[in-house]
Fold Phosphoribosylaminoimidazole-succinocarboxamide synthase.
Amino acid sequence: MEKRQQLYAGKAKSVYATDDADYVVLSFRDDTSAFDGEKVEQLNRKGEVNNKFNAFIMQTLSGAGIATHFEKLLNETESLVKRMQMIPVECVVRNVASGSLVRRLGVEDGMSLTPPVFEFFLKNDALHDPMVNEYHIATFGWATEAQVQKMKQLTFEVNTVLKQLFADAGMILVDYKLEFGIFGGEVILGDEFSPDGCRLWDAQTRKKLDKDRFRQGLGGVIEAYEEVAKRIGVTL
Ligand code: CDP
């Protein structure tokens, strides 16, 4: 497999073509952004930590029967993934209230949510990723009804697997964001799963171990990511 030209550069990852039209290289950079790209910093080692963290999670999910784009780790900061047609919505599941849910609805931060809440957001930084529902997705043709159902089903399956994985390591999976794409006509999990796109709290102390440390200027961001990785058994 040969790495070719850059196809796309996102806020934290870049995508490169390969000599195989079905595969691309995901390159995890140290750039860290928040507030739709308004706050950006370089955090040493983040690309490597997230690349390895994501590989571990994607392999765990794949082992649980959830189809993902992940193929293999290539090096410290890069992974080979299937080239998908991305669905332009983000799927969020919340087990505990925090972040935008608290701001939007005025509920208490840290409140346990039963059943968990599911939300769709449109991927659009200029519009600040507005919340959308299944009618918007159908009307504007972002995904078919069957694809919407599949994304919801897979996002909840991920919750079952990962809530347990983090609980076993003394953490609470507060919420997380997933992105899906289409490969060979099927909806599969894409993008990444890392502390950049979820909230994780220590189960005993409720210490934040995720990107909220960066958003809120709490410091120790990478140290927290490494701690999470170590607890769940990721080899760094
Ligand atoms: O992060 P913020 O409070 O603005 O938004 P949220 O709706 O509370 O985010 C829910 C979860 O999705 C958190 O774990 C975020 O880290 C994640 N998320 C993300 O990874 N990317 C986004 N564009 C929006 C949310």
